[in-house]
């Protein structure tokens, strides 16, 4: 609670004396702290107390009998508390509501004072030099949804139970540029910075701010020298979801004056094929208008099946790096949670692709960074998406 008070004073300072570097990060952290009690309660009720019975999976007891007994015990405890301690229940409810409202206020002010649609954080690692005109690029949708919603969005455990293994995978991949998708929880972004700041020099977080709905969810970090970084919202976004594409221009070393490679990261909208086609066109058009043409690699979760009808037009402007048959995403773990039938078991919707043109980059190698195995075990999976790592020559 003391931390919340400090952050609130910081909030008033912003209103009183204006913006200073990094203030939006502190405000958004404070917003996350205030929202955490509500998120924890939501996670417990929605994904445990009234969830489908899945013994041994999704943090449930090993047997159906034990799980039912736990739910009955908790339910009776809540009923007893509501009857005996009604005054305390009202106080707690008001406190939770107050924290939730404060969280929204801090979030709105944090995004209001954010200057460029993202927040920059300097890591502790030294910048590296790119040798032989090559860079290693990693793209990965890690299903970093808060409030336990990773369970019914991807069929995987809450991110806190996966975070250490996700960090380990990223460290092992040893990429020069990393583009993550679905970093929706502020605490997850801060956890990744804390764990990886010794490995990377530059972090870009809180990309695609939204006062009413969901942020874009991208997080970009690199150990290369940065020439420029921008984030652009798609023109067909709704007020409830601010999807974006980021453009990162890197230099082969700090001594170089001009950039050598452009990495574009994105997560296309899931609602309709026509909207995704418009977003791809906006990316291609924006890159074509950049003042400095560069070898360009476009990465991310495009929500477009590579080998399907929707993916056919992509072969015109792009050369895909990942060409293997194994899907990059699975619905099998989500099926275990919901019991739904008829879902596509696997999809190839994640990309590391080069933009065709006079200064075209090439991909010599592109492999999966495995996040689940053929058992599709929700208790061990790191995400419902595999990552993709590619060696890019420019």
Descriptive labels:
394 residues; 6-stranded mixed β-sheet; globular
Question: What is the secondary structure topology, with strand pairs?
Answer:
Blueprint: H1 2-17, H2 23-49, H3 64-84, H4 86-113, E1 119-122, E2 134-144, H5 150-154, H6 163-173, E3 177-183, H7 186-196, E4 202-205, E5 219-222, E6 225-233, E7 244-251, E8 261-267, H8 273-288, E9 296-301, E10 318-320, E11 329-330, H9 332-338, E12 346-347, E13 350-355, E14 362-369, E15 387-393
Parallel strand pairs: 2-3, 8-9
Antiparallel strand pairs: 1-4, 2-15, 3-5, 4-5, 6-7, 7-8, 9-13, 10-13, 11-12, 14-15
Helix pairs in contact: 1-2, 2-4
Order of adjacent strands in the largest pleated sheet: 1-4-5-3-2-15-14
Oligomer: single chain
Q: Which whole number gives the mean pLDDT?
A: 92
Tally of alpha and pi helices: 9
Strand content: 15-25%
Instruction: Find the count of extended strands (DSSP E, 2+ residues).
Output: 15
Helix and strand run: HHHHEEHHEHEEEEEHEEEHEEEE
Helix-residue proportion: 25-40%
Q: Major β-sheet, in short?
A: 7 strands, mixed
Give the terminus-to-terminus CA distance. Answer: 51 Å
* Mass-distribution shape: globular
Query: Structural class from helices and strands?
Result: alpha+beta
- Show unreliable segments: 1-19
Work out the radius of gyration: 22 Å
